[in-house]
């Protein structure tokens, strides 16, 4: 099993052009709730969250001699992280299937990215694969 | 036999068997790098032992078994270093003594099918798909692939390394896709194979022997895919298309100049490839689920069926292009259809159609084939000045030396 981040990216220009009201978004909320439900039912759910607007960001930099706290994101960009799911899936194909469903539900593009594994080295996998080979 | 000759013979066998060996090892070890390294080690053993012991009766099986042992040795060494993983290595004793013969069909070929779907996964960049397929299934070296695609070897090495790293990190599976995704994924595999073929075919010239090897490699992969997916008519169509195109390759050039279909010496066409291609097209027709590659193959079948240019069944060609346009509504297809129309209804009707095409896609005016088609039609209508301008535009729009030479000569032949 691999853990994947399904990141939903927002775009400030697209947001500005969006004239939909909160009410218009109701079907989106419902679709996302249903998707979350499906993730849980299939045991793929790890964690998920929607983020408040990018203006609410505070950046902390403690890499120098003293910590510096500033308003706003570190990188000035039109693109920002709007929300995400962390899921567990047997392989990328399975993760992509979830991403298709998630993208449709939230009405946004979804980036799929694997997390670093704990014991993700070839030797371990090879051992498991060879064992599975014999078992099958 | 000298050492050099013996080594060349062993390396040729290794290359032919590479896809099978690596695919089988990837299934066992779940890791491309382990598989490739183990295969490389097996080659070293073969180079040492075969000249002394003689080539084994089943060299592919020998290579797979030897490489599997090397792979296991390596895993053992690594796991001894890392005691935490000891427990996970529960290799069965049967596996250690695995001397099962290397079978050309069945599970072994399923391994190659799995691996080709991994190499052509949509999560990989298209150019990486081509490179990986040629490397892992075709057994070409990184240097050869780099040379074939005219990029520096370091660039190609990086491209392949990155793709392999992504397969591992993102856990792209070694698996034949589910029925629901199969058609789309097979299409991606076919696109890679056809791209390899065209890369070799369209730019083949005397000084690029590796490029000619690409067409042979694409056909070989096409045959593998066909044997693995015998029930998918598009796969048969793709193989037929490549065979029928390849059958005309040697007639396509004369003295470094391109020879277009109407002027080709039909006696120089490869009849064996044509017969094989025609049989596949007939098989597709019997199934009756026409698709892009099948229709292109059928058009090529009509051309290769005609003993002379005049004997070409243009009505059939135009009808097939109509069908192709319904499947793939590209201006290029419309352009080719116009060529058939010129033979059926005359150059005037065809020219009117060709001149209308940029309305559908303005980009067509920078495509050399559009200018060539116009030039040839204008020539036939005796409109020399306009034809000359069209040839000039065509020459300006192509980089291919053989094509430029041909077009320049055509232009200079114009009267007035």
Automatic annotation (TrEMBL), chain A:
Stretches assigned to the YCII-related domain: 23-114
Domain of life the protein comes from: Bacteria
Signal peptide per UniProt: none
InterPro entries with a match to the protein in the record: Dimeric_a/b-barrel, YCII
Pfam family, one: YCII
Family: Belongs to the YciI family.
Name of this chain's protein: Uncharacterized conserved protein
Upper taxonomic lineage: Bacteria, Bacillati, Actinomycetota, Actinomycetes, Propionibacteriales
UniProtKB/TrEMBL annotation, chain B:
GO MF terms, alphabetically ordered: DNA binding; sigma factor activity
Domain RNA polymerase sigma-70 region: 15-79
Presence of the UniProt keyword Transcription in the record: yes
Domain of life: Bacteria
GO biological process: DNA-templated transcription initiation
InterPro entries according to UniProt: DUF6596, RNA_pol_sigma70_r2, RNA_pol_sigma70_r4_t2, RNA_pol_sigma_r2, RNA_pol_sigma_r3/r4-like, TPR-like_helical_dom_sf, WH-like_DNA-bd_sf
A Pfam family the protein falls into: Sigma70_r4_2
Annotated keywords: Sigma factor, Transcription, Transcription regulation
Residues annotated as domain RNA polymerase sigma factor 70 region 4 type: 117-167
DUF6596 domain residues: 185-283
PANTHER family, per the entry: BLL6612 PROTEIN (PTHR47756:SF2), BLL6612 PROTEIN-RELATED (PTHR47756)
Family: Belongs to the sigma-70 factor family. ECF subfamily.
Protein's name according to its UniProt entry: RNA polymerase, sigma subunit, ECF family
Taxonomic source organism: Nocardioides szechwanensis
């Amino acid at each position: 099993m691999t853990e994947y981040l399904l990141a939903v990216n927002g775009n400030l220009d697209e947001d500005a052009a969006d004239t939909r009201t909160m009410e218009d978004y109701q079907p989106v909320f419902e679709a996302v709730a249903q998707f979350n439900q499906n993730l849980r039912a299939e045991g793929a759910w790890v964690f998920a969250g929607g983020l408040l607007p990018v203006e609410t960001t505070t950046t902390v930099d403690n890499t120098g001699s003293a910590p510096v706290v500033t308003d706003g994101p570190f990188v000035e960009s039109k693109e920002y992280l709007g929300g995400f799911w962390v899921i567990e899936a047997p392989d990328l194909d399975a993760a992509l299937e979830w991403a298709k469903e998630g993208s449709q539900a939230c009405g946004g593009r979804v980036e799929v990215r694997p997390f670093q594994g704990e014991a993700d080295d070839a030797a371990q996998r090879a051992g498991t694969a060879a064992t599975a080979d014999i078992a099958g | 036999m000298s050492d050099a000759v013996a080594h060349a013979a062993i390396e040729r066998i290794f290359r032919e068997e590479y896809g099978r060996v690596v695919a089988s090892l990837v299934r066992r070890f779940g890791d491309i790098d382990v598989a490739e390294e183990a295969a490389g080690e097996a080659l070293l053993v073969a180079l040492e032992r075969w000249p002394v012991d003689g080539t084994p009766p089943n060299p592919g099986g020998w290579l797979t078994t030897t490489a599997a042992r090397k792979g296991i040795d390596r895993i053992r060494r690594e796991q001894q270093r890392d005691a935490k993983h000891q427990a996970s290595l529960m290799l069965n004793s049967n596996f250690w003594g695995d001397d099962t013969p290397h079978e050309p069909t069945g599970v072994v070929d399923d391994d190659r099918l799995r691996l080709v779907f991994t190499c052509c996964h949509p999560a990989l960049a298209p150019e990486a798909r081509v490179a990986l397929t040629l490397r892992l299934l075709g057994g070409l070296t990184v240097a050869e692939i780099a040379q074939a695609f005219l990029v520096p070897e370091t660039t190609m090495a990086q491209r392949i390394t990155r793709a392999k790293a992504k397969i591992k990190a993102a856990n792209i599976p070694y698996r034949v896709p589910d029925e629901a995704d199969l058609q789309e994924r097979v299409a991606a595999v076919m696109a890679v194979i056809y791209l390899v073929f065209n890369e070799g075919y369209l730019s083949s010239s005397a000084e690029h022997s590796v490029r000619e090897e690409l067409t042979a490699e694409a056909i070989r992969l096409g045959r593998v895919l066909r044997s693995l997916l015998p029930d998918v008519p598009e796969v048969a169509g793709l193989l037929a298309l490549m065979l029928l195109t390849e059958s005309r390759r040697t007639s396509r050039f004369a003295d470094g100049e391109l020879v277009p279909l109407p002027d080709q010496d039909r006696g120089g066409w490869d009849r064996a490839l044509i017969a094989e291609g025609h049989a596949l097209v007939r098989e597709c027709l019997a199934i009756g689920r026409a698709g892009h590659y099948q229709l292109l193959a059928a058009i090529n079948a009509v051309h290769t069926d005609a003993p002379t240019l005049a004997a070409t069944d243009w009505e059939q060609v135009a009808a097939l292009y109509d069908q192709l346009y319904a499947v793939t509504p590209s201006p290029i297809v419309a352009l080719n259809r116009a060529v058939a129309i010129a033979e059926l209804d005359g150059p005037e009707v065809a020219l009117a159609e060709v001149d209308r095409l940029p309305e559908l896609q303005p980009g067509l005016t920078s495509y050399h084939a559009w200018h060539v088609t116009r030039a040839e039609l204008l020539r036939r209508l005796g409109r020399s000045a306009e034809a000359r301008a069209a040839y000039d535009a065509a020459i300006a729009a192509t980089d291919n030396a053989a094509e430029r030479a041909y077009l320049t000569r055509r232009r200079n032949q114009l009267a007035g």
